[in-house]
Amino acid sequence: MEQQNNRSVETEAQMRKIGFKVALFMAILMSFGLSLTGTLMAERPPETPVIASVIGFLECFALSFAISFTIGILVPIPKVNAALARKFHLQPHTPKAHFVESLASNLIYTPLITTAMVCFVYFTMIPEGHKPPFLPMFLFSQVVCLVVAQVLIMVFVPIIIKLVLPKMPPQQ
């Protein structure tokens, strides 16, 4: 009985470590992808030096990383995915399940990250004489970032999972 409890504690610790690594990689992926998207979409006055764009990217990346990593630590994505699989009768490891799970992650991460980045850029980085109307900028950014994030999540999450899962010895 005690040996079973030790295995359970070890398994739980290993799952927490895997969850932490996935959250870290997802935070880096989402932050880099969405910050780069925002930087490339930004309209800059011609007199703006390139270094300002680089600094803006780095500031957005830092903000986005903090938000994304916090979401990854606080939101139990595997439990969300399991609940979605039950609700929609999804078979594990199928394209349909992968799409639904990716969409759920996207809808959890992206609106928060994009909202924070758009507000940060709009209210702290855009000079007064060059500010576009907020709502169209905000809505356009949300749509573009949702599409970019969906692609990033669908392509890279399986790779991240393979990287962080412990290597199992071949079964005989």
**How many domains?**
1
| Cα gyration radius (Å) | 19 Å
Return residue spans where pLDDT drops below 50 for at least 5 consecutive residues.
none
Q: Main sheet?
A: none
The whole-number mean of residue pLDDT values reads: 88
How much strand?
Answer: under 5%
Q: What's the number of helices?
A: 5
Instruction: Give the SSE string.
Output: HHHHH
Structural class: mainly alpha
- Distance from N terminus to C terminus (CA atoms, Å) equals 27 Å
The beta-strand count equals: 0
Q: Tell the overall outline.
A: elongated
Main features:
mainly alpha, elongated, 5 helices, 172 residues
Question: What does this molecule look like?
Answer:
The chain has 172 residues and is mainly alpha-helical. The protein has helices spanning 2-41, 50-74, 77-88, 95-125, 134-164. It has 5 helices and no strands. 20% of the residues are buried. The model has no long low-confidence stretch (mean pLDDT 88).
